[in-house]
Structure formats: C-alpha cells, structure tokens
Amino acid sequence: MDYLEIHGPTSLSGEVKISGAKNAALPIIALTLLAKNSVKISNMPDVVDIKTLLKLLENLGATTSFDQNYVEIDTCCLTNTKATYDIVKTMRASILVLGPLLSRFGHCEVSLPGGCAIGSRPIDLHLKALEQMGATINIHAGYVQATAPDGLVGANIVFDKITVTGTANIVMAAALARGVTTIKNAAREPEVVQICEIINASGVKIEGIGTGELTIQGNDRELINIEPFSVIPDRIEAGTYLCAAAITNSSIKLTNVRADHLDSVLGKLREMGIETSSDETTIDIKAADFINPVKIITQEYPAFPTDMQAQFLALASLADGTSTIEERLFENRFMHVSELQRLGADISLNGHVANIKGSNELFGADVMATDLRASSALVLAALAAKGVTNVHRIYHLDRGYEKLEEKLVKLGAKIKRLSE
Ligand code: EPZ
C-alpha cells in the first residue's frame, strides 16, 4: 500500500494548474447515458473515481476512451441496466446512473451505495423524487430496483434537504420525462450548474439554472445530442492548494481556475489575513506573516463548502488564536482531528463543533488518511510540520486529487510516494 513521506517545514513557489472538477465529471459521465451521440469531454480529471465510473458504464455496454484528460463516451448500444455492487461499493456516487438509466429505459437496478467514512450518506431523497415522477422503487437484496414502464412523468419536487447528487439525478431523470418537472430547494453548486447548462444546450429547456428552483421541460424519452465541452475547474482542489500556500506562508499562482466558484473560501482566507488576487482564470495568493483565527460553518453553496472543512481545520491549527469550525452537513467528518492531534494540533471536539487552539508549530509523525478531504488536510499539515510525516492509506487521496504529490513537488515540496 502506498504512503507519502513528507519533509517539513517547506515553502512553496511557482504555478500550479488546477484539474477538472471530479464532482462535475461524475454526473457528466452519468449524463452521457442520455446521449444519442458519442460525447467528447476535455479537462477530465485523471483520478480513480472517474476511472471507476467509466468502468461501470463499460459494464453496462458503453464504449469509453480516456487519453490525456480527454474522454469519449458512447452509450448508443447499452446491453444492460444493472449497476452491480462490486463497483458501486467502491464509489457511492455511482448512484448518479439511477436517474438517467430509469428515464431512458424505464427500468434499472442499482446497488445501494451504502455509507462511507464521513456518514451514512442516505439516498432517500433521490428515491422519493423518482417515485413522485411515477417510478416504482423496490429495495431488494441490497439493490434499488426501479421501474417506470411508461417512462417518467414531470412532477413538482421539493427536496427536504439540499442534495447535490440528488439534484443532479433528478435533473437528468427529468430531461427525458414526459412534461415539466420543477425542483425546489435544489442544489446550486457549480457542478450542478454545469450539468444543467449541458442539458439546456442540448435542447432540453431548463430555467432557473444556478438558483434553488429549477424547471425542466422533459422531452419524453428522446435521446439528446451533447456537443463537445470541457469540465469546469475543481474548486475544491484549488482551495486545497490555496491552503497549502497559506499553511506554509508561501506565495503561489493557481492557473485554470474559476475564482468566482471560490468566493466563500477566498473570503475566509481574507478573514485569516491571507490576501489573494484573481482574474478570469488565475488566482495569486500572497504569503502572510501570521494567520488570524477564524469562525467557519459549513453549508451548501455558495456558503462555505464542507469539502474544504478539513483543510481549513489544518490551517487553523497554526493560527494566532482559537478558531471554531462547525460541520453541518455530515455526521462524521472530523476523523482528521485525531490524526492532526498526532502532529501536535490542539483541537477539542464538542459534537459537530471543533475548537482549534492555534499554535506556532506542528511536529512530523505517522498519520493515517481516512477519507478524501481528510487525507489532503494531513498533507497540508505535514508541509508545515517540523520533521518527517508519513501519511498512510493515500488511496483515499488518489480518488479525487490528480497528481497531488507531483504538483506539490513542482511547487517545491519535499514529498516521496513510497510503498509499505
Ligand atoms: C456531494 O455528495 C459531493 N460528492 C460531496 O463531495 C460533498 O461533500 C457533498 O455533495 C456536499 O457538498 C459528489 O458530488 C460526488 P448531498 P452528495 O446529497 O451529493 C443528506 C468529496 O469529498 N442527504 O448533497 O452525496 C446527506 O446525508 C465528496 O468530493 C439525505 O439525507 O451529498 C447530507 O447530510 C464528499 N438524503 C446532506 O443531505 C439524500 O437522499 C448533503 O448530502 C441525500 C442526501
């Protein structure tokens, strides 16, 4: 199993190119199930989760090719509509094929995704919305068995909670439904916006894109033509590199990035005394002499993203004062705390609130990654810690960060990927 050996403290300099967004690419790959043509996608991140979902589509009978961040997917001749446990268990976002498969074929079986390290990750809101659209849903032997023999029918959906993949699933299902679907309390994340934009550009009219209220004019099971497009930049990868610069008091430039997707993150960095400047496609972050403590509450977009919580918790460990971070979306997203404590961070947990007493130094140690974003937080802390840190189980990192250690080494970090 691979681990990262990181020597700190280190400072960073130079430029880092941000990859395409994993959380946009996953629903986009599922969306190709609605296409009559071979779909050409550029800026596709080369990460494990993407490979996993492409494999799932191949198991359904799609043909895919992936070369240098460029992907072509043809789903014209699917042979089956069953997403099996062996794949879904490794990547719960596989649930994103449920809406498209059901809407196109009128039946499908998708393994229940199960939970993951950060929480139970239910899909009840996805299923309830599909039932409102006329689907019959049975849960049997660990599978969601969904049928809608006459196709799905437009409905007025109000999500009890804002759900990112739930919104994407229902938008895709509604695209081929008969009649109009409205979704209230819809997710507004940039990744959901891109799915809506691609579908709207194909001729299926969607109103309210970017707002919490979407209206989709379904086309009654007519496959859509999807023109070539590029995946939006990964705002969470970008935020992670911003924190890498901040935690090491470094000045770096991010390229191929959308600063307008990062308002809440840039705002919190500013509150912490870290200045940035940006244009259409780049962000410059300046080294700061010291880091102010901060108060963060994670909420849905455009508020502060839960996927940046762990990284800011690492950063707050070196602030001049006490910070508080409240995690409001997931029930178990503080597993990085005990690992950061091994590096010397002074953090106390009170339910869903972490109190971080900033100190002026961390010390290298062996630590273990537990989930994707927690792993990146450990790498950030290791860059600033005095001595050698070994971050174990970095398969978590490989799921969502493209060439992380290569990009950091290019910025001047002292990192080696080793096997144990
Ligand atoms: C997406 O997960 C992201 N994953 C997550 O990123 C991200 O943390 C999350 O949105 C929140 O922003 C992808 O886009 C592939 P939700 P998702 O449905 O869609 C509850 C990463 O690190 N809920 O928006 O699964 C749920 O329990 C990953 O890249 C229900 O109760 O999250 C949670 O409390 C981690 N019932 C809240 O809603 C449902 O049917 C938000 O979950 C669905 C969700």
Main traits of this protein?
single chain; about 425 residues; alpha/beta; four-stranded mixed β-sheet; 14 helices; 24 strands; elongated; binds ligand EPZ
Describe the fold and architecture.
The strands form six sheets. The protein has a four-stranded mixed sheet with strand order 22-23-1-24, covered by helices on one side. It is built from 14 helices and 24 strands. Helix 4 (98-105) packs parallel to helix 6 (164-175), helix 5 packs parallel to helix 6 and helix 8 (235-247) runs parallel beside helix 10 (309-316). The chain is 31% helix and 25% strand. The longest helix is centred in the first third of the chain and has 13 residues, at 48-60. The chain starts with a strand and ends with a strand. The radius of gyration is 21 Å and the shape is elongated. The model has no long low-confidence stretch (mean pLDDT 96). It has 420 residues and is of the alpha/beta class. The structure holds ligand EPZ. Ligand EPZ binds at residues 23, 26, 93, 119, 121-126, 161, 163-166, 306-307, 329-330, 372-373, 400.
